[in-house]
Amino acid sequence: MLSATSRSTIKKGAHKARTQLELLHSIIDESLIAHIAISEETGPVVIPMLAWRVDDYVYIHGANNSRLMRNLKKGNSTCLTFTLFDGWVLARSAFHHSAHYRSAVVFGQFTAIEERAEKDRLLNHFIEQIAPSRCEEIRLSSDKELDATMLLAIPLTEASVKVSENDVADDEQDLSIPVWAGFIPYKTVVGPLVASETMTDTPKAPDYSMAYGDRWQNA
């Protein structure tokens, strides 16, 4: 269960708050994109980054000279947001149109993973998460490549989850308006694979469907 803090307690739309740790994990694992906030001399900046979870930590990686990575390596406070959009809610009034979504916000500070073998393990974990068993076939990172990459970790000790999945919230006096009300679902689909133009032979296409469940499509 998520622990509420002054920053993670949801006040607006509190009925949409969720406290299940498993739900936080699932939102991060499905999204894999975090919008990360930093404060610079010129003002706040929010940058989208690939992000992945291993147990109770979220990891990001980037070049050593990245302004975002250098800022976060200092231990500055930040927040990460993950959002999965599930569809539009169409009401009988303009005011009550809304959306279905699942979102998570993580607060805290990043720390750097410096040990080369651990950095390699965690970066390969990300590859395995998006393409199971791929690390058995590809060339793994060289020491030079690992040294050129900064890897940062943030713990999931302070986070909030919000889910909007309610029915249309029309006012009682609007229920008699003769207009359709309901939902426009959005679904993310994955696949099928598209081969690179650089391929000169025709190895059998791998099967990564196990990583995506019912989101995978073959054609």
Which strand-content bin applies to the residues?
25-35%
CATH class: Mainly Beta
The CATH homologous superfamily name equals: Electron Transport, Fmn-binding Protein, Chain A
> Helical amount among residues, as a percent range?
10-25%
Radius of gyration: 21 Å
CATH architecture assignment name: Roll
Please count the beta strands (DSSP E, at least 2 residues each): 11
Our count of helices gives 4
Oligomer: single chain
Average pLDDT, rounded to a whole number, is 94
Low-pLDDT regions: none
- What pattern of helices and strands is seen along the backbone? EHEEEEHEEEHHEEE
Structural class category: alpha+beta
Approximate shape:
globular
The figure for the number of domains is 1
- Under CATH, the topology can be stated as Pnp Oxidase, Chain A
Largest sheet: 7 strands, antiparallel
N-to-C span: 39 Å
Task: Give structural notes.
It is a single chain. The protein has 219 residues and is an alpha+beta fold. The protein has one domain (14-215): Pnp Oxidase, Chain A. It has helices at 21-31, 67-73, 116-130, 143-147, and strands at 17-18, 33-40, 43-50, 52-54, 57-63, 77-90, 98-109, 111-112, 149-155, 159-164, 182-185. Strands 1, 2, 3, 6, 7, 10 and 11 form a seven-stranded antiparallel β-sheet that branches. The longest helix is centred in the middle third of the chain and has 15 residues, at 116-130. The mean pLDDT is 94. Pfam families: Pyridox_ox_2 (PF12900). This is Flavin-nucleotide-binding protein. It comes from Vibrio scophthalmi.
